[in-house]
Design a protein that fits this description.
Distance between the termini of chain A: 31 Å
Largest sheet of chain A: none
Largest sheet of chain B: 6 strands, mixed
Structural class of chain A: mainly alpha
Oligomer: heterodimer
Order of helices and strands of chain B: EEEHEEEHHHEHEHEEHHEEEEEEEEEEE
Helix content of chain A: over 70%
Largest interface: A-B, 16 and 23 residues
Radius of gyration of chain A: 23 Å
Strand content of chain A: under 5%
Distance between the termini of chain B: 34 Å
Shape of chain A: globular
Strand order of the largest sheet of chain B: 6-7-8-3-9-10
Helix content of chain B: 10-25%
Shape of chain B: elongated
């Protein structure tokens, strides 16, 4: 038994090391002097750690602006996605209305269509609405993700009807039931969904690249890609850019990990 | 407080008719129990009174108000659910105060109402706990407390004891009875458990397939069941029902060919009329008597003080249950003399309806 436990622990530690090693090296390279990482064999640690790359990023390249763009778009995308998907998921699970199940089946069927297929029509539609090259245009695909609606619906199904009926007898309106009874119960799944949307919109490259033409509106991944075209040899600078891109979401994920895991597990464990 | 009047309640789900014209009058302050097997429509009826199901036809009047189309919160009812339906993220105090909070009641009023309900139910010490920290019985008490706080005209209970273990169920049954005595609120209580119905009710309504089979006090229903269904639904072990035919001598001939005497009301029946004879297990007399018949004890269920004998007559005859004080003298395989006293017989026609009864 003990040997088995040790084996599992060692194996897990090895996999964890494999996963974290590139991230650590990325951090290490970001503090190296220009060209140091391109030596062979590549050094693990900087010989003379410095913040030159970061100075250049924030000074010359003005990455702060892109960081703010990303933060703004991801935060708004998350807030709006929660605003639309939670009531929708709840309604699909718990409210009775005509065509509910048929509509939901149609939505779930649409999940199998790759997002890229919808990009061109969506672009043309937004162009007609005058939303190309704006934050609003970058936000649209995140507003009411089918996966989010599905996630919320599945979780809501585990809430007993009797609890909602008790609230109805207590005189609560449907909006009050959602706000005062359902939302607190949904906390784990809301955190999970928020993380999904925030990470997804933060890392998204394709859609912002298509919809945002003005460089001032660029998000971090798009700005970084543009930068890498000019500085293809400058690994240390690119790694510093990657750190700036990765770090905020990594911190966010670690901070909310507890809720995230319970959100993923609860639905399956609950009767 | 107020009375409740349901007139010709009908409810269909798609093509399935669950309530087929139910009319009930519950007097002010009365404890009425609706009892029936699973799927008989009793919960649907209760939910219709609560406003959680819309009736397909008929009307519901509480006090002198027609509430048929009012939302649940405006009907003056409070409901206790089988699963308790407490809000898991709120404390006991917040659970009980929820309705008043929604109604924007003053804080002092809310506190007073919660305190009063908590005192009645002896749960003052639990007020700051969350439902997950409570036992089943305590949760049930909180659910009742939440109902009391609303000061309803009518309490609705939907199988409130079904999730509790046997011991706690007995205790809560007693508490329900004393709570009703204390508050005197009109109560409609749904259960499939005939013991709950018999012990709690002022009046019982027996429901089957969306129709009322009989309404009456527990004693009336037990002593004078209107049909075989009610006769066998109430009482444990259930009433024995033996198919028989009226003989030329005015006695009944059982399936195994033996004959027994009938009460005077059978005199009106002509020879050859088929009927069913019902007798409660505790009404069968063991011992020598003029009309006693020999039976073999096929099986004995010993319950401590009481024993239930399953008696077999001749080949082909149905076994009948007989309950008596257990003195340990009888064993399986023994032959005993048993008589079915005419005074305790219930007679049912071929349609299952009672012909009348002499028993009490």
């Amino acid at each position: 038994m003990n040997i088995r436990r040790w084996t599992v622990t060692l194996l897990a530690a090895f996999v964890a090391l494999l996963t974290i090693a590139p991230l650590l090296w990325m951090l290490s390279v970001s503090f190296m002097a220009r060209g140091e990482a391109s030596q062979f064999p590549p050094p693990l640690l900087p010989s003379d750690p410095g913040l030159d790359n970061y100075r250049m990023l924030f000074g010359t390249f003005g990455i702060g602006r892109f960081l703010l763009n990303s933060l703004l778009i991801s935060t708004l995308a998350t807030a709006l996605a929660l605003l639309f998907t939670i009531p929708a998921g709840y309604a699909f699970a718990k409210l009775r209305f005509k065509g509910r199940d048929a509509t939901f089946r149609l939505l779930v069927a649409a999940l199998v269509v790759p997002g890229q297929i919808g990009m061109l029509p969506l672009f043309l539609e937004l162009k007609a609405m005058g939303l190309v090259n704006s934050y609003a245009g970058a936000l649209v695909p995140w507003l009411a993700g089918i996966f989010g609606i599905f996630l919320v619906r599945q979780y809501c199904l585990s809430i007993p009807d009797e609890m909602l009926e008790a609230a109805r007898i207590d005189g609560a309106s449907e909006a009050q039931i959602l706000r005062r009874i359902v939302l607190p119960i949904l906390t784990p799944i809301i955190v999970t969904l928020a993380l999904f949307v925030f990470l997804g919109s933060w890392n998204d490259f394709m859609w912002p690249l298509i919809i945002l033409a003005d460089q001032d509106l660029y998000t971090l991944p798009v700005a970084l890609a543009a930068m890498s075209r000019q500085h293809v040899q400058d690994n240390e600078l690119m790694m510093a850019g990657a750190v700036v891109t990765t770090l905020p979401v990594l911190i966010l994920f670690l901070a909310l990990q507890r809720f995230y895991l319970s959100g993923l597990l609860t639905g399956s464990v609950k009767g | 407080m107020a009375g409740l009047s349901i007139h010709d309640a009908r409810k269909s789900f798609d093509t399935t008719e669950v309530l087929k014209g139910v009319s009930i009058d519950v007097a002010d302050g009365e404890f009425t129990v609706i009892v029936g097997p699973s799927g008989c429509g009793k919960s649907t009826l209760l939910r219709a009174v609560a406003g959680l199901e819309e009736l397909t036809g008929g009307s519901i009047v509480i006090g002198d108000r027609d509430v048929t189309s009012l939302p649940p919160s405006e009907r003056g009812i409070a409901m206790v659910f089988q699963s308790y339906a407490l809000y898991p993220h709120l404390t006991v105090r917040e659970n009980m105060a929820f309705g008043l909070r929604i109604a924007n009641a003053a804080k002092a009023e809310i506190d007073a109402a919660v305190r009063r309900a908590a005192e009645i139910l002896n749960i003052e010490a639990l007020l700051d706990r969350k439902p997950a920290e409570l036992s089943g019985g305590q949760r049930q008490r909180v659910a009742i407390g939440r109902a009391i706080v609303r000061q309803p005209q009518i309490f609705l209970f939907d199988e409130p004891l079904s999730n509790l273990d046997a011991d706690l169920r007995v205790r809560m049954r007693y508490e329900f009875a004393s709570l009703h005595r204390q508050l005197g609120t009109t109560t409609l209580y749904v259960t499939h458990d005939q013991v709950e119905a018999m012990t709690l009710a002022d009046r019982i309504i027996v429901l089957r397939d969306g129709r009322i089979e009989q309404v009456g006090t527990p004693r009336e229903l037990y002593a004078r069941p209107a049909n075989i269904f009610v006769a066998q639904f109430l009482g444990t072990p259930r009433m024995n029902v033996l198919p028989a035919t009226i003989g030329t001598d005015g006695r009944a001939t059982l399936e195994d060919g033996r004959s027994i005497a009938l009460p005077p009301l059978a005199a009106a029946l002509t020879a050859g009329t088929p009927l069913s004879i019902g007798i409660r297990p505790e009404d069968i007399a063991i011992g020598d008597a003029p009309d006693a018949l020999p039976f073999t004890i096929r099986f004995i269920e010993r319950l401590g003080g009481l024993a239930t004998l399953h008696l077999g007559g001749r080949e082909g005859g149905e076994a009948i249950a007989c309950q008596l004080r257990d003195d340990g003298s009888l064993d399986e395989g023994d032959t005993v003399l048993a008589s079915l006293p005419p005074a305790h017989l219930h007679l049912f026609g071929a349609d299952g309806q009672a012909l009348g009864t002499t028993g009490e």
